[in-house]
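Reproducibility note. Readers wishing to regenerate the assembly model reported in the main text can use the exact inputs given here. Chain order matters: entities are listed in the order in which they were concatenated for prediction.
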Amino acid sequence: MIPGHFEYHRPTDVASALGILATHGDEARALAGGHSLIPMMKLRMAAVGHLVDLQAIPELRGIEVGPGRIRIGAMVTQADIIAHAGLTAAAPILAETALMIADPQVRNMGTIGGNVANGDPGNDMPALMQCLDASFELRGPEGARTVKARAFYESAYVTARSDDELLTAVSFAPTGGGYAYEKQKRKVGDYATAAAAVILTRAGATCASASIAMTNLADTPVWAEAAGAALVGTPVDAAAIKAAVAAMRAAISPTGDNRGPVAFKHHVAGAVLGHAIARAWSRA
Amino acid sequence: MSKMHLKMTVNGAEVETLAEPRELLIHVLRERLNLTGPHIGCDTSHCGACTVDMNGKSVKACTVVAAQANGASITTIEGLGTPDALHVLQRMFREHHGLQCGFCTPGMITRAWRLLQENPNPTEEEVRFGMSGNLCRCTGYQNIVKSILAAAAEMNAVKEAAE
Ligand SMILES: Cc1cc2nc3c(=O)[nH]c(=O)nc-3n(C[C@H](O)[C@H](O)[C@H](O)COP(=O)(O)OP(=O)(O)OC[C@H]3O[C@@H](n4cnc5c(N)ncnc54)[C@H](O)[C@@H]3O)c2cc1C
Ligand code: FES
Ligand code: FES
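Running the prediction on these inputs yields the following structure tokens for the assembly.
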């Protein structure tokens, strides 16, 4: 399987990349690590006239860990995330999630920007970004703007980013308290049957705040606001977890596929969320 | 369709070739440069038989287009050892029966070579996790893991002796 013909571009700054995207309109497509796009092009499910490779743009690299804000450039790979000690100290859920994506070779190529811009409900980083209340920085011909991860996903492969924009970075606040990303997959290299991202804080014996988001259980990631709220003020006991799982189930809309029928998806979603909450609480 | 001039460093040597940008790196290596060590197992980014080293990282050469690799430094199994001077990993795979049909072996060894640079003293679990992008249909992995651990031990012993 070989992709269809395309013209290849390797700009060295964001402005030139945007210029190429503007010139060729929806004929053009950004290439980050290529580990979602190239398989689709090989299957001829994506046809791209102009491929704009972002690998040589230094502005899109780099992880900045500030006291109040963490910013990760779009071209930072999953392997870079795992290897960054400062990032893991400030927001350990990033590495925990990245380690559950595919295998070492894929993580060497796959980028955070590609993972969140792709819009595939199977990608793991989008739900994580919603859990973190991250912001996505977009740059286009009209300048820069910021869109919240929780407002970015419209349906499968449809996002708030327009064709002539690049996603340049993601940013979010460092996390305190407990965290967990729990994923059920059939084997290494498979997308999630269901996965849950949980961040929570503790005040004495009870939960002070909680944020919960789910992967691959609808045509977009699902930030389950009510599920997080169900934990707040509770001692995160069995009853509270049950309430959170029920609230989460009301927010997802999985479809049956080769990973199982709808009822099974609901079951697995409940199981991974239960485990994730328990692990996050044990770390809080 | 128009071809592009590809320049890469492959196994330490500067090479130039013409290829369409859309060709996959694995095809450039196998068909244009006659490096048939890296194999095509699945062609869907899963099996790791096509694993090569690109700019110091293990990648699946079936999921990299030629144009992306322009300017890159590539190492394939051919760059690790020769029949007369096997790499320690190659010797250990032979000694510990780390292969049966051998189809996965070039990818396994090229990946293990990078893994042992990233982590020269891995536990068995770290080897299994680090090798999780490479599938083998024959061995059941036990002897592959054994071979890699034995290679690590020997490489470390040689390093210690040198110090
Ligand atoms: C075997 C295998 C298993 C995998 N398993 C998982 C998994 O379990 N979970 C998971 O999350 N992912 C998985 N992936 C996908 C992998 O993580 C991808 O690398 C990732 O989804 C996309 O990142 P990329 O850098 O490769 O993007 P690309 O493939 O280069 O791009 C993906 C899409 O995003 C667009 N894009 C990329 N960067 C930008 C940007 N900066 N601005 C605007 N648009 C952009 C591209 O135009 C394209 O449409 C798997 C991939 C493989 C091959
Ligand atoms: S041929 Fe590349 S991963 Fe199988
Ligand atoms: S030895 Fe046959 S596939 Fe591994």
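We highlight two features of this model. Chain A has a mean pLDDT of 97. Residues 178-283 of chain A form a domain with the Enolase-like; domain 1 fold (CATH 3.30.390.50).
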